[in-house]
Amino acid sequence: MKANHLFLLLERLGNLLRSKEREAGGSQGLQAIHLQVLSFLSSCNKYSNTPAGITEYFGITKGTISQTLNVLEKNKLITRSADKKDLRVVHVELTKKAVDLLKNEIPPAVFKEALSELNDIERKTLTNLLYKLLVALQHNNNGKTFGVCKTCRHFKANAFGRHHQCGLTNEKLFNNEASKICREHERMVS
Ligand code: SF4
To answer: Which single residue of 16, 34, 48, 151 could bond 30 by disulfide (Cβ 3.0 to 4.6 Å)?
Structure first.
Protein backbone atom coordinates (compact mmCIF):
# COMPACT_ATOMS: atom_id res chain seq x y z
CA MET A 1 0.00 0.00 0.00
CA LYS A 2 1.32 3.43 -0.93
CA ALA A 3 2.21 5.87 1.86
CA ASN A 4 -0.32 8.38 0.57
CA HIS A 5 -3.16 5.84 0.69
CA LEU A 6 -2.26 4.77 4.23
CA PHE A 7 -2.02 8.38 5.37
CA LEU A 8 -5.49 9.16 3.96
CA LEU A 9 -6.87 6.06 5.66
CA LEU A 10 -5.46 7.05 9.05
CA GLU A 11 -6.60 10.63 8.56
CA ARG A 12 -10.12 9.47 7.72
CA LEU A 13 -10.19 7.25 10.81
CA GLY A 14 -8.95 10.15 12.95
CA ASN A 15 -11.58 12.52 11.55
CA LEU A 16 -14.38 10.00 12.08
CA LEU A 17 -13.34 9.36 15.68
CA ARG A 18 -13.08 13.11 16.35
CA SER A 19 -16.59 13.66 14.99
CA LYS A 20 -17.94 10.88 17.26
CA GLU A 21 -16.16 12.50 20.22
CA ARG A 22 -17.68 15.84 19.30
CA GLU A 23 -21.14 14.21 19.22
CA ALA A 24 -20.58 12.53 22.59
CA GLY A 25 -19.27 15.75 24.16
CA GLY A 26 -21.97 17.88 22.54
CA SER A 27 -24.73 16.07 24.44
CA GLN A 28 -22.94 17.14 27.66
CA GLY A 29 -22.15 20.69 26.50
CA LEU A 30 -18.48 19.72 26.02
CA GLN A 31 -16.09 19.87 23.08
CA ALA A 32 -13.93 16.98 21.80
CA ILE A 33 -10.81 18.39 23.51
CA HIS A 34 -12.62 18.32 26.87
CA LEU A 35 -13.33 14.59 26.52
CA GLN A 36 -9.80 13.95 25.28
CA VAL A 37 -8.27 15.64 28.33
CA LEU A 38 -10.56 13.62 30.63
CA SER A 39 -9.54 10.46 28.81
CA PHE A 40 -5.84 11.35 29.16
CA LEU A 41 -6.30 11.99 32.90
CA SER A 42 -7.93 8.57 33.28
CA SER A 43 -4.87 6.83 31.87
CA CYS A 44 -1.88 8.91 33.04
CA ASN A 45 0.13 8.64 36.25
CA LYS A 46 0.88 11.04 39.11
CA TYR A 47 3.88 12.60 37.29
CA SER A 48 1.73 13.47 34.28
CA ASN A 49 -1.62 14.71 35.63
CA THR A 50 -0.45 18.33 35.74
CA PRO A 51 -1.24 21.24 33.39
CA ALA A 52 2.32 20.93 32.01
CA GLY A 53 1.89 17.17 31.41
CA ILE A 54 -1.42 17.72 29.63
CA THR A 55 0.08 20.51 27.50
CA GLU A 56 3.01 18.28 26.51
CA TYR A 57 0.77 15.34 25.63
CA PHE A 58 -1.56 17.30 23.36
CA GLY A 59 1.09 19.66 21.97
CA ILE A 60 -1.25 22.63 22.19
CA THR A 61 -0.83 25.98 23.93
CA LYS A 62 -0.88 26.45 27.70
CA GLY A 63 -3.70 28.95 27.23
CA THR A 64 -5.94 26.38 25.53
CA ILE A 65 -5.25 23.82 28.24
CA SER A 66 -5.91 26.40 30.94
CA GLN A 67 -9.30 27.28 29.37
CA THR A 68 -10.10 23.57 28.98
CA LEU A 69 -9.35 22.91 32.66
CA ASN A 70 -11.53 25.88 33.67
CA VAL A 71 -14.48 24.44 31.72
CA LEU A 72 -13.95 20.96 33.19
CA GLU A 73 -13.72 22.36 36.71
CA LYS A 74 -16.85 24.47 36.22
CA ASN A 75 -18.68 21.30 35.12
CA LYS A 76 -17.43 19.48 38.24
CA LEU A 77 -15.49 16.98 36.14
CA ILE A 78 -12.05 17.64 37.68
CA THR A 79 -10.49 18.84 40.92
CA ARG A 80 -7.13 20.53 41.31
CA SER A 81 -4.84 20.11 44.30
CA ALA A 82 -1.29 21.13 45.20
CA ASP A 83 1.42 18.46 45.34
CA LYS A 84 2.21 17.42 48.91
CA LYS A 85 5.98 17.81 48.40
CA ASP A 86 6.10 20.75 45.98
CA LEU A 87 3.31 23.28 46.41
CA ARG A 88 4.12 24.85 43.01
CA VAL A 89 2.95 21.67 41.26
CA VAL A 90 -0.80 21.20 40.75
CA HIS A 91 -2.35 17.78 40.18
CA VAL A 92 -5.59 17.44 38.21
CA GLU A 93 -7.88 14.54 39.19
CA LEU A 94 -11.13 13.19 37.74
CA THR A 95 -14.31 13.39 39.80
CA LYS A 96 -16.76 10.48 39.95
CA LYS A 97 -18.97 12.39 37.51
CA ALA A 98 -16.08 12.36 34.99
CA VAL A 99 -15.33 8.67 35.55
CA ASP A 100 -19.00 7.84 34.88
CA LEU A 101 -19.03 10.07 31.80
CA LEU A 102 -15.96 8.37 30.34
CA LYS A 103 -17.39 4.94 31.06
CA ASN A 104 -20.45 5.80 28.95
CA GLU A 105 -18.88 7.83 26.15
CA ILE A 106 -15.26 6.74 25.57
CA PRO A 107 -14.54 4.95 23.34
CA PRO A 108 -17.67 5.96 21.38
CA ALA A 109 -20.18 3.09 20.98
CA VAL A 110 -19.81 3.11 17.20
CA PHE A 111 -16.06 2.49 17.56
CA LYS A 112 -16.64 -0.44 19.94
CA GLU A 113 -19.11 -1.91 17.44
CA ALA A 114 -16.67 -1.55 14.55
CA LEU A 115 -13.88 -3.11 16.63
CA SER A 116 -16.08 -6.08 17.52
CA GLU A 117 -15.93 -7.06 13.84
CA LEU A 118 -12.22 -7.87 14.23
CA ASN A 119 -11.14 -11.10 15.90
CA ASP A 120 -8.57 -11.22 18.72
CA ILE A 121 -5.61 -11.86 16.41
CA GLU A 122 -6.61 -9.01 14.10
CA ARG A 123 -6.98 -6.63 17.05
CA LYS A 124 -3.60 -7.62 18.46
CA THR A 125 -1.92 -7.27 15.07
CA LEU A 126 -3.55 -3.87 14.49
CA THR A 127 -2.52 -2.66 17.96
CA ASN A 128 1.09 -3.78 17.46
CA LEU A 129 1.38 -2.20 14.02
CA LEU A 130 -0.19 1.11 15.07
CA TYR A 131 2.08 1.20 18.12
CA LYS A 132 5.11 0.60 15.89
CA LEU A 133 4.02 3.44 13.62
CA LEU A 134 3.49 5.75 16.61
CA VAL A 135 6.94 4.95 18.01
CA ALA A 136 8.56 5.69 14.64
CA LEU A 137 6.67 8.99 14.36
CA GLN A 138 7.64 10.03 17.88
CA HIS A 139 11.25 9.07 17.22
CA ASN A 140 11.40 11.16 14.06
CA ASN A 141 9.66 14.02 15.83
CA ASN A 142 11.84 13.94 18.98
CA GLY A 143 8.57 13.57 20.85
CA LYS A 144 8.05 12.17 24.32
CA THR A 145 6.79 8.61 24.24
CA PHE A 146 4.13 8.86 26.99
CA GLY A 147 4.46 5.08 27.16
CA VAL A 148 3.10 2.66 29.74
CA CYS A 149 5.14 2.68 32.96
CA LYS A 150 6.00 -1.04 33.06
CA THR A 151 7.66 -0.73 29.63
CA CYS A 152 9.98 2.09 30.80
CA ARG A 153 13.70 1.60 31.26
CA HIS A 154 13.44 3.12 34.77
CA PHE A 155 10.77 0.64 35.92
CA LYS A 156 11.98 -1.75 38.64
CA ALA A 157 9.47 -4.57 39.06
CA ASN A 158 8.84 -5.72 42.64
CA ALA A 159 11.74 -3.64 43.99
CA PHE A 160 9.81 -3.27 47.26
CA GLY A 161 8.47 -6.81 47.45
CA ARG A 162 4.87 -6.53 46.24
CA HIS A 163 5.43 -2.97 45.04
CA HIS A 164 7.52 -1.62 42.20
CA GLN A 165 9.88 1.36 42.02
CA CYS A 166 10.49 4.23 39.62
CA GLY A 167 14.24 4.31 39.09
CA LEU A 168 14.05 7.98 38.07
CA THR A 169 12.36 9.33 41.22
CA ASN A 170 13.09 6.31 43.46
CA GLU A 171 9.45 6.40 44.58
CA LYS A 172 7.28 3.37 45.21
CA LEU A 173 4.83 2.41 42.45
CA PHE A 174 1.67 0.44 43.11
CA ASN A 175 0.44 -2.24 40.72
CA ASN A 176 -2.23 -0.02 39.16
CA GLU A 177 0.40 2.66 38.46
CA ALA A 178 2.48 0.21 36.39
CA SER A 179 -0.19 0.29 33.66
CA LYS A 180 -0.50 4.09 33.50
CA ILE A 181 1.16 6.30 30.90
CA CYS A 182 3.91 8.71 31.98
CA ARG A 183 5.46 11.90 30.60
CA GLU A 184 8.89 10.76 31.85
CA HIS A 185 8.69 7.35 30.14
CA GLU A 186 11.80 6.25 28.29
CA ARG A 187 12.00 3.18 26.08
CA MET A 188 14.11 0.21 27.16
CA VAL A 189 17.48 0.18 25.44
CA SER A 190 17.73 -3.02 23.40
S1 SF4 B 1 9.40 4.06 35.74
FE2 SF4 B 1 9.41 5.42 33.95
S3 SF4 B 1 7.29 5.49 33.27
FE4 SF4 B 1 7.29 4.68 35.37
S5 SF4 B 1 6.99 6.47 36.68
FE6 SF4 B 1 9.21 6.17 36.47
S7 SF4 B 1 9.82 7.46 34.73
FE8 SF4 B 1 7.58 7.22 34.65
So the answer is: 34
